[in-house]
Design a protein that fits this description.
Elements lengths: L2 E5 L2 H14 L5 H21 L14 E6 L4 E6 L6 H9 L5 H7 L3 H6 L17 E9 L8 E6 L4 E7 L5 E8 L9 H11 L7 E9 L4 E10 L16 H12 L7 E7 L5 E7 L16 E5 L2 E7 L11 E6 L8 H6 L1 H21 L3 H16 L1 H4 L4 H7 L2 E3 L2 E4 L1 H6 L8 E5 L3 H5 L5 H5 L5 E3 L4 H5 L4 E2 L2 E5 L13 H13 L1 H10 L6 E4 L8 E4 L7 H9 L10 E4 L4 H4 L7 H15 L7 H12 L1
Helix pairs in contact: 2-6, 21-22
């Protein structure tokens, strides 16, 4: 039979150059592409056979077979799908612009067109075989054609390909990759099975490989004539929820995430409307060790029409939900979608928004189970708080999910706090600190403890930044007890207010002297209404960074404003009363300031000078 040589379309030649040099960073991808194409060919035959059962000939059971020959250095992928005619081989394997599946879909209309969305592309992915092969041979016969109307297509992946007519009894396509010498690791059943398990386990028809057994005499494995399926032939997420047991959901999660523990909860849904996709999302029980690593990749697995596209598709989930694991299978995205296209796609935005709402619903349901939600919050609460600054549209829902320690207990929600506010209390009070002990023992809580007013104790690094985006909750303002002057409103009686005003007036000469002595450290010095037992504390104006946040930013190597705090002094404290007429006024003033700084977790600017002043006074 005569052979005909054809030149590749210019775009194909360019593509082949990219494929063999830089397009795919992971060479395993060629197995995914070729098995996917084989599956698509079977899907196409199944679809056409609905109207013409004769196309199934005498082989109604559709399948894909993967085999290799170590001696010949060949890897073969065979399907009994729709197959190719000679002209289709020339058109589809020599040209990108006219893919067989694209032409096929264009011929359909109405309801048929929607059904055809299940059928993938046969085209560009085929060329990925040249990542590992120095030559590819394709032998095929289209369903419905005679045996002698088969075709052989051969190319070395350079500028041209050869086509000849052959006799082929079997319907479908056999692709033989003649592997390069440096790619013979793919002549290994274990490696191929692992790749198929990762990328193609979801494919809904069996992928068969020959069994092997150990030949003790030759000290090597020998291939048997017996074939077995190496995939489950059914994507778990594509099955009906009623057909999946909790154990199967858990096992799938463990395989997906490499986590040894069961997830806390999961949600499995098919979303229809403007954008169609299936989501299977899990919330883990434990945070990974690198959750806070800025370089860490996070995201969920993306499939398109059951074809695996990428791990860690970060565009499908907001950053503050980076702990979520799962799978999205889109019916609308193109198979050749890239990370760059994902960032620009409207469909991706719709999927991301849908995923965000779904995870928030999962957390709202989980919050009704106290123990489980406590476990979740201990691992991921700090990450969830990032959503207050990142997700304006869902800020209220996120705020309701937050939990804090307080002066009255643990696991307090903002709604819990508001429900037990004192009559006349008009703000939700909170304090941020480096640790729970520092928060509980802060001098700034003294007046609140005296009056029995609950204060939320916030110790996560993200707290102050996150709460700057939540000025109020359910109509009640949030107020830091370390910012601004303390105004307890109706909770402070007139006698206390008058006493404070009188103390400020009486103590004014000392205050003026303190301001002068501490002018390089303190923005202002004033008499406090928030201290009961302590001599002094540091506060900042409303709207300013706290000294703690400025400290954290500097420790993280980020720019932070130089904060000059306000020193508040307790005029009734014996140490403060000693200031008046003291020969060591300047030393006492600096000690008061540095002690206030130490009480909130900071360090004196000059620790040696602080120690020297203390020693001088003690002596």
């Amino acid at each position: 039979m005569s052979k005909h040589t054809h030149a590749f379309q210019a775009e194909v030649a360019q593509l082949l150059h990219l494929v063999t040099h830089s397009l795919y960073s992971n060479p395993d991808i060629f197995v995914r592409e070729l098995v996917s194409n084989a599956s698509d060919a079977c899907d196409k035959l199944r679809f056409e056979a609905l109207n013409n059962a004769a196309l199934l000939e005498d082989a109604p059971n559709l399948e894909v077979r993967v085999a290799f020959d170590k001696d010949a250095k060949t890897l073969t992928i065979t399907d009994n799908g729709i197959g190719l005619s000679e002209q289709e081989a020339i058109d589809n394997l020599g040209t990108i612009a006219k893919s067989g599946t694209r032409s096929f879909v264009e011929q359909l209309s109405g309801d048929q067109k929607k059904d055809a969305q299940l059928i993938g592309q046969f085209g560009v992915g085929f060329y990925s075989g040249f990542i590992v092969a120095e030559k590819i041979t394709v032998e095929s016969r289209r369903a419905g054609l005679k045996a002698e109307e088969g075709v052989r297509w051969v190319s070395g992946g350079t500028g041209d390909f050869e086509v000849e007519a052959i006799t082929r009894a079997e319907r479908g396509t056999r692709i033989t990759l003649h592997l390069r010498d440096d790619k013979t690791e793919y002549l290994n059943r274990w490696k191929l099975k692992q790749i198929i398990g990762r990328y193609s386990d979801h494919i809904s028809l069996p992928i068969l490989m020959q069994k092997e057994e150990w030949d003790a005499e030759k000290s090597e494995y020998k291939t048997l004539d017996e074939w077995e399926s190496v995939n489950s032939a059914s994507a778990l997420w594509s099955r009906a929820k009623k057909d999946i047991t909790p154990e199967q959901y858990t096992e799938f999660y463990k395989n997906l995430s490499f986590d040894s523990e069961a997830p806390l909860t999961w949600s499995h849904n098919r979303v229809e409307g403007g954008t169609e996709y299936t989501q299977l999302l899990y919330i883990p029980a434990k945070a990974p060790a690198d959750l806070w690593n800025r370089e860490r990749k996070a995201g969920i697995k993306l499939y398109v029409k059951r074809v695996f596209i990428m791990d860690e598709a970060e565009s499908l989930m907001p950053s503050y939900m980076r702990f979520v694991k799962g799978v999205i299978d889109s019916a609308d995205l193109p198979l050749n979608v890239s990370r760059e296209l994902l960032q620009e796609s409207r469909d991706v935005k719709a999927i991301r928004d849908g995923n965000t709402r779904r995870v928030l619903s999962m957390l709202e349901d989980l919050s009704k189970e106290q123990d489980k939600y406590d476990a979740f919050y201990a691992e991921f609460g700090a990450v969830l708080k990032e959503g207050l600054g990142e997700d304006f549209g869902n800020r209220e829902r996120i705020a309701k999910l937050l939990r804090f320690a307080s002066t009255q207990g643990e696991g307090v929600s903002l709604a819990d706090y508001k429900a037990r506010m004192k009559e006349g209390q008009d703000a939700i009070y909170y304090i941020t600190a480096d640790s729970l002990a520092a928060a509980k023992n802060s001098p700034q809580l003294e007046v609140f403890k005296k009056k029995g007013i609950e204060v939320l104790l916030m110790t996560d690094r993200v707290d102050e930044w996150a709460l700057s985006f939540v000025p109020e909750f359910d109509g009640t303002p949030l107020q830091s007890v370390a910012k601004g002057a303390v105004d307890l409103g109706k909770l402070q009686d007139e006698g206390e207010k008058k006493a404070a005003e009188q103390a400020a007036e009486t103590f004014k000469p000392v205050l003026d002297k303190l301001k002068e002595s501490l002018k390089d450290k303190a923005k202002d010095v004033r008499v406090t209404t928030r201290l009961v037992d302590s001599p002094a504390c540091l506060v900042v104006e409303d709207g300013e960074y706290s000294t703690q946040l400025a400290r954290l930013l500097k420790q993280a190597g980020q720019q932070a404003p130089d904060i000059k705090p306000i020193l508040e002094v307790n005029a009734e404290h014996p140490l403060v009363k000693k200031l008046e007429g003291s020969a060591h006024f300047d030393d006492l003033a600096h000690i008061l300031f540095d002690q206030a700084l130490l009480a909130e977790g900071g360090l004196p600017e000059d620790p040696a000078a602080y120690v020297k002043r203390i020693n001088t006074l003690l002596a």
